Amino acid sequence: MHFPNMAEPAGRTLGDEETAALERVIRSGMLSSVWGTEARALEREIGDLYGARHVVACSSGTAALHLSVVAAAPDPGDEIITTPITDFGTVAPILAQNAVPVFADVDPSDGTLDPDAVKRLIGPRTRAIMAVHLFGAPARAGELRALADEHGLTLIEDCAQAWLTELPGGRYAGTAGHVGTLSLQQWKHITCGDGGLTLTDDDELARRMRLFADKGWDRAAGRSHESLGLNYRMTELQAAVARAQLAKLPGVVASRRHTAALLLEALRALDGVAEADAPGEAVIRLPRPEGHAWWLLPLVLPGGDAPELAAHLSAAGIPARAGYLQEPLNRAPLWGRPVYGSSAYPLEGYRPAACPEAERLVEATLVVIDWNEHYTREHVDAVAKAVASYPNLP
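Structure for Glutamine--scyllo-inositol aminotransferase, as requested:
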């Protein structure tokens, strides 16, 4: 059985609407968002969907995260606390602003930041907390916002994998923090190849981000550059495709939720499989479905048999892998190497601390299964059958 994936037409929702959007922009003759209308329209539509006062469109999800760090305005050497289970795009902007990433450990049941671990790391140089809604699961954003407010910090939410992920109370991930970021990269729920968006209700944070995304250029003041900035502008072509994709987003997430719910229902019937928070021992722990947008479908094997289950599923044709990352970012080889030229600034003598729960997830307990809006009941049945035949289940 073939499992559609996001590298092929059968695994995407790209079609006539996106083609028409591209033609509309090309025939207009204006491909730059500085003078065009598509990027500004996309910002308004995202703002309406998320209830955000300000939205800034930019060239990539990593650019969006860079803008969020700029909004937090760390001084050189200031610290930003984040998770070691994430793409390097979460951490690179911290280094780009001459700040120091401090890795906090995670909840072993879902890989999202543990607020207690974050609290222990807050110090005099801490400037922000950057949470990641991993695999589409909601991080504990309410607790992290309370911590941020208590200590005068900026809370940034990385929602690259979490389009329409719901927080307790029904708000979308990205709206609990001071800044939320979204990604339109090829592998996300919706795509324009690359693209990013930042969300905020804070006028000053929005001003900083919009300036930085356009070379520090206050266009209302003429050819005048107010501050340091880069060219992170989204093109009109990207924005037009993103707008067409945005119309399909609710259906994409609803489909992923439907088939994920079917799989969880099937797996709950198996001996040795239990909910994330159920008492007692289990071979496989299921993800919490509340609010989940299912970018990937994770399973946790507390006994450390994730590589074995991943190999078993792969042999059955299921798109599964162990660990998600080769190593958590606190164990990446870049630490101790030069950052700019031959200089290690601002990381002289820096070595990230151990994060035992994150390291165990990546090395031993986490399996992720690719998920897609085009999966059918037959795909769900194939995954369930493969899991049911895992020899380590009772």
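DSSP finds twelve helices and twelve strands in the chain.
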